[in-house]
Specification:
The protein has 9 helices and 13 strands.
Length: 296
């Protein structure tokens, strides 16, 4: 059975168009496909193939150097590994780093805690990040796009779906919040909790995955100060978050401790240049620092 996640509708369309789902997913570096991924796939020339790895240098007998054990990779992990390798090989990615002031958001979360408890919803910082990213994608439509497999056409999307990377014991899953730009914080927070919980018990269906405009991968609950996330094609950018840290900011001669969240934006340099990335992340950071801009 195929390891590619695709809805019955997507598979029917692929069959009608004569598209090989597995081959297309491999070319795009994806484990999930939606109907929009089939557009032009039946007439597009295949993109450059991922370079074949010369594995001779690591094909060694490790037991010759000491005790070892063997742990088979699951089929899920093998597919993910191939997709990550293809994405890293085919996309000329660059990572831009910045940070954003979390003072206002932490103040709102504290002030709204009684309401959150009354609603039975945990209002996480991630909900604010999803809202900020959705609005940033509307402000910078080139980030809400995909490059055609042959690299000749940029497909601009008139919808905003945000992927949320969820770390599970059976591998990384990326369920999607649909139309995030049209939803309020409480709805977004509830959907994040629901998707994350279902991902942990493998109850995420094809309708919950694929078609994201952009993905957020959040390591804030674990640690770290920065990292370089790999772009998840056919998306053209991915936003990484790490743990909020206290940074000293100077107001004239007066030092002030400020909680700042590190931001790591990896982007496909074929579509986005460095100046655009800097402007995008600066706009995003302003929304985080002053969330009233996205609550109107």
């Amino acid at each position: 059975m195929s390891d590619i996640s695709a809805s019955p509708t997507t598979r029917r369309l692929a069959l009608e168009k004569g598209i090989d789902i597995d081959a297309l997913a491999q070319r795009l570096g994806r484990t999930t496909l939606g109907p929009e991924d089939l557009e032009g796939a039946d007439r597009a020339a295949p993109g450059p193939a991922a370079p074949a790895a010369d594995t001779a240098y690591w094909d060694v007998d490790h037991s010759a150097h000491g005790p070892v054990t063997h742990e088979p990779m699951s089929r899920f992990a093998q597919v993910a590994a191939r997709n990550l390798a293809a994405a890293q090989a085919l996309i000329p990615a660059v990572t831009h780093h910045d940070r954003a002031d979390m003072t206002a958001i932490e103040g709102l979360r504290k002030a709204w805690k009684p309401e959150a408890e009354g609603r039975g919803v945990k209002l996480t910082a991630l909900a604010f990040h999803v809202a900020a990213l959705a609005r940033s994608l509307r402000a910078f439509p080139r980030f809400n796009a995909s490059l055609s497999p042959d690299g000749t056409t940029l497909i601009l999307k008139d919808y905003v779906h945000i992927g949320i990377a969820v770390d599970t014991e059976h591998g990384l899953m990326v369920p999607v919040i649909r139309d995030a730009d049209r939803k309020g914080l409480w709805t977004i927070a509830a959907e994040i909790a629901d998707l994350a919980a279902r991902a942990q018990v493998r109850k995420i269906g094809p309708q919950d995955m694929g078609g994201a405009s952009m993905t957020i991968t959040n390591l804030g609950g674990i640690g770290g100060t920065a990292f370089t996330p790999i772009v998840n094609p056919p998306e053209v950018a991915i936003l990484g978050l790490t743990r909020t840290e206290t940074v000293t900011v100077w107001d004239g001669d007066t030092p002030r401790p400020v909680p700042m969240v590190p931001l790591d934006l990896s982007y496909d340099h074929r579509v986005i240049n460095g100046a655009d990335a800097a402007r995008f992340l600066s706009h995003y950071a302003k929304l985080i620092a002053d969330p009233r801009r996205m609550l109107v």
